[in-house]
Amino acid sequence: MKRDQCLKLIAKYHRDEIVVPVYQAAFEWLAIKPDAPNFIAVGAMGHASSLALGLALGSPERRVIVLDGDGSLLMNLGSLVTIANAAPNNLLHFVCENGTYEANGGHPIPGKDKVSFAGLARAAGYGEAHEFSELNALEAALPGILCATGPVLVDLKVEPGESYPQDFIYMHSPAAREKFKAALRQPRRA
Question: How many domains does the chain contain in total?
Answer without folding.
Answer: 1
